[in-house]
């Protein structure tokens, strides 16, 4: 199922980094691979983001294509990720992916976990 409303957005910097990582693991030219984003219990605030590369869709997966990146999430995680933006920072204050999640009521200082 391809969803378009309330999609997970991918910034240009995140797109570049995802493409680099796909190439590094040898899947850069394989269109069956996508970025799987999920929400799992844990972290200082109660919920954490998890990202992996995958090539197998599950029946209840929500599929988005934004900025040339295919993003897939399970339905339960999607409820926490509606209208979220995936970004990447390579600045002095830290390097890595981060989420701009309008559904999070609070986040921890490290930015890797959140609460709703």
TrEMBL record:
Query: What SUPFAM superfamilies has UniProt attached to this entry?
Result: HesB-like domain (SSF89360)
All residue ranges annotated as the Core domain in the record: 8-111
The molecular function GO annotations come to: 2 iron, 2 sulfur cluster binding; protein-macromolecule adaptor activity
What GO terms describe the biological role, i.e. biological process, of this protein?
A: iron-sulfur cluster assembly
Give the protein name, as stated in the record.
Answer: Iron-sulfur cluster assembly accessory protein
Fetch the Pfam families from UniProt: Fe-S_biosyn (PF01521)
**Taxonomic superkingdom:** Bacteria
């Amino acid at each position: 199922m391809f969803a378009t409303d309330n999609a997970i957005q991918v910034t240009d910097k995140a797109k570049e980094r995802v493409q680099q990582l796909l190439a590094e693991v040898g899947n850069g030219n394989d269109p069956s691979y996508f970025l799987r984003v999920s929400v799992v219990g844990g972290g200082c605030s109660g919920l954490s983001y998890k990202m992996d590369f995958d090539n197998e869709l599950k029946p209840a997966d929500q599929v988005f294509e934004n900025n040339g990146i295919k993003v897939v999430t399970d339905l339960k995680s999607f409820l926490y990720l509606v209208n979220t933006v995936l970004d990447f920072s390579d600045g002095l204050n830290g390097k890595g992916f981060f989420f701009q999640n309008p559904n999070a009521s609070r986040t921890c200082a490290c930015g890797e976990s959140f609460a709703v």
